[in-house]
Specification:
The chain has helices at 4-10, 51-64, 75-82, 100-111, 125-132, 154-163, 214-227, 233-243, 246-265, 284-290, 305-315, 345-350, 367-381, and strands at residues 68-72, 91-95, 116-120, 138-142, 167-171, 189-193, 207-211, 270-274, 297-302, 320-321, 331-333, 357-361. 48% of the residues are buried. Helix 6 links the parallel strand 4 and strand 5 (167-171). It is an alpha/beta fold. Strands 1-7-6-5-4-2-3 form a 7-stranded mixed beta sheet, with helices on both faces. The protein has a 5-stranded mixed beta sheet with strand order 8-9-12-11-10. The longest helix is centred in the last third of the chain and has 20 residues, at 246-265. The protein binds pyridoxal-5'-phosphate (PLP). Pyridoxal-5'-phosphate is lined by residues 74-76, 99, 101-102, 142, 171, 173-174, 193, 195-196, 205, 207. Pyridoxal-5'-phosphate (PLP) is lined by residues 74-76, 99, 101-102, 142, 171, 173-174, 193, 195-196, 205, 207.
Length: 382
């Protein structure tokens, strides 16, 4: 069997039956000609099935080691899609520090009476055990957490979910299957916002759900078609193009992130660094056990409060002030006023998010240039 890194480069290459193009063509057609009225071809309607979506789904399913994948119009569509696997009033357990969009979706689906939800600190074994005793139907897992990069034991939570009779779902957006393989660690479902590392170029919104069982794949594909949340052909084409270089991009970004985290630790103006690739980080040991790398997201607290944090962001030139992650370019964000502004201030403080916490999505630029950009900004605000 060829290596996954080879497979994602090769997916869909040289399969064009019409003109033998090396790169797969984009099939924009919304509908397809039937050979006769009682016999449709492989494709009939674009919402249901599309060749570009199928190539991408095949590559993503193989990368995660699943029975199949459903490619959706966004990461949020992927998360909402898996909620179709449970019934009204079923209980969902989610991390208390999960992605803000996930928190909003689950909270409001619960307000509508579609599901019940409890948010739990999944690093707290007692709290998790108590939540599991309430017989959840679905357990959501996210690692590392955002923005504090807390690492949770995926295998242990999946085992607990299984004994409680729940479906375990890992949002693997921050790491990708090249750093953490949820299905191998016991999860039933791995999902991602492909907007981030999978596409990697900050130019499409997308998502995917990979399931271990054929049964889940069938149900998810049925709902994706029924609700119309499948991704557009162009976005799938673009995402497959990005996916081909995932291994190279992640290696480069992670190596830069490690250098940056080590540099930040030495800075007088930095109160604390959060990066599970550092030996001093509480997540370091778990990363060695369950991951093939710590990823490329780094957070740190700057001394001097919100004013210092704001001034630091404004002084940077290479790091752009924006609220996404996983692209080739380096970004910085201030969770206090950006990604986590929707949270109540007290909830932010309780979650450990201070007003001077900064989050970096480290890109693949030259390490020396990124370090120089940071050090010039420290000098500018001191
Ligand atoms: C971005 C993100 C999402 C949502 O994905 P979209 O593609 O923006 O809809 C979900 N989970 C995590 C962890 C994310 O970072």
């Amino acid at each position: 069997m060829t290596d996954p890194k080879t497979n994602i480069v090769q997916a869909g290459i040289g399969i064009d039956p019409a003109h033998a193009s090396v790169a797969p063509p984009i099939y924009l057609s919304s509908t397809y000609v039937w050979p006769n009225p009682t016999d449709k071809g492989a494709y009939d309607y674009g919402r249901t099935k599309n060749p570009n979506r199928d190539i991408l789904a095949g590559a993503l399913a193989e990368l995660d080691g699943g029975a199949g994948a459903v490619v959706t119009s966004s990461g949020m569509a992927a998360i909402d899609l898996v909620l179709n696997l449970i019934s009204a009033d079923d209980l969902v357990i989610a991390p208390h520090d999960c992605y803000g969009g996930t928190h909003r979706l689950l909270t409001h689906r619960a307000k509508q009476g579609r599901i019940r939800v409890v948010f739990v600190d999944q690093t707290d074994a007692k709290a998790l055990e108590a939540a599991m005793a309430n017989k959840p139907a679905l357990v959501m897992i996210e690692t590392p957490s955002n923005p504090l990069m807390r690492v949770v034991d995926v295998a242990a939570i999946c085992t607990a979910a299984k004994s409680a009779g729940a479906i375990s779902v890992v949002d693997n957006t921050f790491l990708s299957p090249l750093r953490l393989k949820p299905l191998e660690l016991g999860a039933d479902i791995a999902l991602q916002s492909t907007t981030k590392y999978i596409n990697g170029h900050s130019d499409i919104i997308g998502g995917c759900v990979v399931a271990k069982s054929e049964d889940h794949v069938e149900k998810l594909a049925w709902w994706a078609n029924a609700a119309g949340v499948t991704a557009a052909a162009f976005n799938c084409h673009q995402t497959l193009r990005g996916l081909r270089t995932l291994a190279l991009r992640l290696d480069a970004a992670e190596s830069n992130a490690t250098a940056i985290a080590e540099y930040l630790q030495t800075q007088e103006a930095v109160a604390r660094v959060y990066y599970p690739g550092l030996k001093s980080d509480p997540g370091y040991d778990l990363v060695q056990i369950q991951q093939s790398g710590p990823g490329a997201m780094v957070s740190f607290e700057i001394k001097g409060g919100l004013d210092a944090a704001t001034a630091f962001c404004r002084s940077l030139e290479i790091f752009k002030l924006a609220a996404s992650l996983g692209g080739v370019e380096s970004l910085i964000c201030l969770p206090e006023t950006m990604t986590h502004a929707g949270m109540a201030e007290s909830a932010r403080r309780e979650a450990g998010i201070s007003e001077s916490l900064l989050r970096l999505s480290v890109g693949i630029e030259r390490e020396s240039d990124l370090l120089a950009d940071l050090s010039e900004s420290f000098a500018a605000i001191s």
